[in-house]
Amino acid sequence: MSETRPFRVLGVQQIAVGGADRERLRSLWVDLLGVTPLGTFRSESENVDEEILRIGEGERGVELDLMQPLRPGERPRVDEPPLHHIGLWIDDLASAHAWLSARGVRFAPGGIRRGAAGHDVCFIHPKGSADAPQGGEGVLIELVQAPHSA
After folding, report:
1. Phi, psi for 22 (deg, rounded to 5)
2. pTM score over 0.85
3. Residue 95 to residues 1, 57, 91, 99: CA-CA distances in angstroms?
4. Above 90 in pLDDT, residue 98?
5. For the chain, which end, N or C, has fewer CB atoms within 10 Å of the first or last residue's CB respectively?
6. Residues 6+ apart with CB under 8 A from 64
């Protein structure tokens, strides 16, 4: 592709791990591995009860979200697959969304919105569609607006 891309991927923002019982996830990640807890997030519309952890230091540390569904078996499924999604820091989220959409990337419903950690986010759908044939090839990818200092 010879065209100039109007945004850059700056690094990994988060990794989201789902399970039926967030306490079992917490036992491993916090109690045994010693990863630092930061807070929690709960969303009825996203069917999620999550604990937000932090691996590493500074603005390039990586968020680790431990997710459990509020309503098991209902969509969206935050516990399947267990490695639910990865999040990438993007320097210009609005430009990335517009540019990628124009090139056939399928985004999950909801558009750009405020995410659990307070940053604007949007999601590349794991599967393409007839209208937008490029998806994440089985992986949900969260694009996250990086803070201006990133």
Report:
1. -60, -30
2. no
3. 17, 28, 9, 6
4. yes
5. N
6. 14, 15, 16, 17, 29, 35, 52, 53, 54, 55
